[in-house]
Amino acid sequence: MKPAPVAKLDTAKAAKPRLTTSAMIASIAGEGQRTKPAPFGHALVNCARADASIVGMTADLGKYTDLHIFQQAFPDRYYQMGMAEQLLFGAASGFAAEGFTPFATTYAVFASRRAYDFIHQTIAEEDRNVKIVCALPGLTSGYGPSHQAAEDLALMRAMPNMTIIDPCDAHEIEQVVPAIVAHKGPVYMRLLRGHVPMVLDEYGYTFELGKAKMLRNGYEVLFISSGIMTMRALEAAKALEADRVDVGVLHVPTIKPLDAATILEACSRPGRLVVVAENHTVIGGLGEAVAGLLMRAGVHPAFRTIGLPDEFLAAGALPTLHDRYGISTDALCTQVKGWLT
Amino acid sequence: MSTAPFGNNISLERRAWNIRRNAIRMGEVQGQGYIAQALDIADVLATAYFHAMRYEPHNPEWEGRDRFLLSNGHYAIALYAALIEAGIVPEEELETYGFDESRLPMSGMASYTPGMEMSGGSLGLGLSIAVGKCLGLKRKGSDSRVYTLFSDGELDEGSVWEAIMSAAHHRLDNLIAIVDVNNQQADGPSTGVLGFEPLKEKLEAFGWFVQRVDGNDLSAVRAAFDAAKSANGGRPSMIIADTLMGKGIPFLEAREKNHFIRVDGHEWQLALAALDERKPA
């Protein structure tokens, strides 16, 4: 079969093999990157050893949300609810009403889209202590829109009572899990599963619920980011340093409630371009949350957002898609350089 | 514990009559309400609260209580009437029904009312919550049961069937669900909106212990609750209660059936008068 023509690629890229859509779940770890296996599953097991109220529930995605680690450690505290997400979250609400701390897992699309009313009414409105932990957040699957949760944060942000966490890496996930156990109330956590990159340990980072943290200072550009985009922003900052562009990175893992004070202070520094980078549609995510905050506070830095376009995303290999939609490290560098000239 | 309400000599007939009367008084306060449903389900609620369930009226969150989930939140007027009769909600609050700042909103919500265990309104939620509560109670080693009332219209919701499968799969014999088959939903007769018959056979095929009774025949309803509470081989229990909308008020029973039945201003007093003529001992 004749290979498809490779257009408009530089020679380095043209030499790479053609990429294909991986399985539904693609690794987001770069080649040679340090990783940890199933950090969520192991962290949950650690918490559950000390806290008998924790139960694990899933809708036929235990293996694919790293909940199988919990299942192996506590088989009698693991509840397979079947491929029935509405039931999953309704039952999680009932479990929580009886004093338990259910961790309910599925893919982000199924929680945020299919089961929205169940989460809204039985968990958020009733203020139940349910931890919703969802794999494949944003664009972390090349499988197509059925599995790409480009709008999960927008949907969850609109729900009163919901705390929303978008962790960056394995180091952070390990700290988020005990923190959300300690926090009483509904939580939506974006999950990275499988072999998850280790990044933030190099920055002496500790997670605090509701806190944004400056990982790196820079006077020309400030990235504000969450989730995997913080990893990308840090890589971009290093790359841009080589081009003598000084870039800071403010990591905002708690999407709601937003750390307004830290963000406003960081954005008040004069002459610094603020770029919010998010693995999410540009509608209703961190970019618009920060923009709204700045407008309401009368803080007006030069401001740009990097996020997924308002369209149904393509199927394909994740690196291809991240380049195409502007959220790869290279794409971040290119966009920032364009805005600075 | 409390079976306090059962300790006296008030008959179930009188309990059901009192529930109907409380509901009509609330309807009169607001000039509207799902009164036809309240009247049809009064016998089931009387049996649940004054024969079947275990609770402490002055301690509605008592850990040893049986849980009652109102999935069809628009039946709140009926449940409030029962909660008042049970002494869980003070009778004087009846006058606040549906008003701003009341603990008795038009649609039942968990955070508003003592004894209201879930937020309804969006139909089809209750059985899923019940599954989680039953699993949780079993995990705690509790012998409390979960009673869940839902409406025949809710059988249209796919999530109800998810929960029906799940309850059987997890062998939730601490679950007693009651479906009110009054054959009326928003757009017309339930069987015409989306057919669900033969309901008993379907639910049995799903692995439930199923009884179908005249939901306005107190002795039949009482027997059904008794059977549901006795050993049923690890199966969840479903009571299909065929009911008559407007039951107990002849001119409302005869009114053209409608999901939200119209009662004119002067008719509330007529309804009370009609009920008072039929006051049981």
From TrEMBL, chain A:
Q: Give a single Pfam family match.
A: Transketolase_C
Could you tell me which SUPFAM superfamilies the record lists for this protein? Thiamin diphosphate-binding fold (THDP-binding) (SSF52518), TK C-terminal domain-like (SSF52922)
Gene3D superfamilies this protein is in? 3.40.50.920, 3.40.50.970
Stretches assigned to the Transketolase-like pyrimidine-binding domain: 34-198
- Record's InterPro entries? PDH/Transketolase, THDP-binding, Transketo_C/PFOR_II, Transketolase-like_Pyr-bd, Transketolase_C
Q: Which residues form the signal peptide?
A: none
| Origin: domain of life | Bacteria
What is the protein's name according to its record? Transketolase family protein
Q: Which organism is it from?
A: Ancylobacter crimeensis
From TrEMBL, chain B:
Q: Where is the Transketolase N-terminal domain?
A: 22-259
Obligatory cofactor(s): thiamine diphosphate
Name this protein carries in UniProt:
Transketolase
> Which keywords label this protein?
Thiamine pyrophosphate
Q: Looking at the Swiss-Prot or TrEMBL record, what is one Pfam family this protein matches?
A: Transketolase_N
Per the UniProt record, the lineage of the source organism begins with: Bacteria, Pseudomonadati, Pseudomonadota, Alphaproteobacteria, Hyphomicrobiales
The UniProt entry, under InterPro entries, shows: THDP-binding, Transketolase_N
- Quick check: keyword Transferase in the entry? no
| Family stated for the protein in its record | Belongs to the transketolase family.
